[in-house]
Amino acid sequence: RCVQETGLEAKGQLKLDWGTLKNNRDAYIERLQDIYKNNIIKDKIEVVKGICKFLNNKTVECNGEEFISDHILIATGSKPRRLKIPGEEHCISSDGFFALEQQPQSILIIGGGYIGIEISCMLNALGTETFLSTRDKGILKKFDKESTSFLLKSMIGHGIKYLPYTEVKKVTKQPDGRLKVQIDGIPGKNEMVVDCVLYGIGRIPETEDLCLQNTDIKVEKGRIIVDEDHNTNIKGVYSIGDACQFLQLTPTAIRAGRILSERLFNGQAQLKMVYDTIPTVIFAHPPYGNIGLSEECAKEKFGENNVKVYKSEFVHMFNQLEKDEAERAKNKVLVKVIVNLADKERVVGVHCVGQGVDELIQGFGVAVKMGATKADFDRCVAIHPTVSEELVLLTPQYL
Asked: Which one of the listed residues 158, 285, 351, 384 is annotated catalytic?
């Protein structure tokens, strides 16, 4: 019954009805939006729709009406960074992906960040021939290198055609509607034809229409600069989410907004938003969950001799009955714990790649936030058979 709601037909060979999937997804998003709208009405919040422009540090104009307030919060989010090549108008960003009326039979995805990885894995799993292009070799540059290399190997094993050191120069729409792509970096080939080209090359703050040049608010490359309490350099003006310089994640922005509200209007001046231990998941196939520092960042921060890494690679229990070694190899799991030897082996990073890790990382995130050590991990009895048990069985020394 649940399968049918996603547009998948489970009778005989598994098939996808893209229209059913899109319609049900759109309806779900609409329900969420209605919930938010109703909550705003219940809280008696006045909504003014329009483009806001700063006239000075404390005055905002919208639809010809001026607003002056002791507290102004800038939370305008971000938008996809443009590709800026000939034929860009034939390509789509992640925004355009959600408007696709038909599943593309083939797609070229440009960019190895969150968006590029998640969409390429999803479409590949649904049967689209998927090409992934990056200018350099590797994906998810800000994350743990060993973990991202492990993920990339698994992605390739599951059928994604990876094109490192490549750069798209031009996209032309053919009479049949398909797209001819001029691309540098593929040995012996400089063109390819696909149904769709999607770019996910980062996001930029949605601040250019705010007329911040009329204010003294500090801005760098469109991003509003704030302190640890999300104050700008102008008293009474704040910024959260993608509009400012901190981590761009929806749950992070929600929490930052709640903390700011509590601090300003509910006397909770001690509340702080801590950004150095935020759990996150890249919803790839398989997913990659992590919290804390990468191995590279830990060694840079604490010194190479003060960092120890505990790790394990294994075939997921779900695939243990698989006899094909190639199938087993592409369904492996990596778990990795990074500790600071100079601080009683305090855990400073946890990285997991594999089926089910998106659910386990939240709990280990709590442990890391509480300052857990390797000894704390070792003292926890394992739950068998699970992926998460491996994290408490990594060379136990403190039984």
From this structure: 384
Q: In angstroms, rounded to a whole number, what is the distance separating the alpha carbons of residues 333 and 139?
A: 18
Contact 294, 143 (CB under 8 A): yes
Instruction: Give the Cα separation of 357 and 283 in Å (integer).
Output: 10
Q: Are 399 and 388 in contact (CB under 8 A)?
A: no
Give CA 113 to chain center in angstroms.
8
**Distance between CA atoms of residues 160 and 337, nearest Å:** 28
State how far the alpha carbon of 184 is from the alpha carbons of 61, 88, 90, 164, in Å: 47, 16, 19, 10
Active site residue 384: yes
Per-residue pLDDT tens over the stretch 91-147: 999 999 999 999 999 999 999 999 999 999 999 999 999 999 999 999 999 999 999
Q: Which residues pair with 60 in a beta bridge?
A: 54, 67
Tokens of 251: 């749950």
Give 383's DSSP letter.
Answer: P
Q: How far apart are CA 92 and CA 198, in angstroms?
A: 5
| CA end-to-end span of the chain | 46
Contacts of 297 (CB under 8 A, 6+ apart): 349
DSSP state of 1: -
Residues 395 and 310: beta-carbon distance below 8 Å: yes
- What is the edge-to-edge ordering of all strands in the sheet holding 65-68? 52-56, 59-62, 65-68
- Kindly list the averaged pLDDT for each block of 10 residues, start to end, along the chain of length 399: 66 83 95 96 96 97 96 97 97 95 97 98 96 97 97 97 98 98 94 98 96 98 96 98 95 96 96 93 98 98 98 93 88 97 98 96 96 96 95 82
Answer positive or negative: Cα dihedral of 363, 368, 371, 377.
positive
Dihedral sign for Cα atoms in the order 358, 359, 364, 368: positive
Selection from 90, 81, 84, 82 nearest residue 108 by Cα? 90
Q: How far apart are CA 217 and CA 238, in angstroms?
A: 10
| Structure confidence at residue 290 (pLDDT) | 98
pLDDT of residue 36: 95
Place of tokens 């404390």: 58
**pTM of the full structure:** 0.94
User: pLDDT digits over 166-201, tens only?
Assistant: 999 999 999 999 999 999 999 999 999 999 999 999
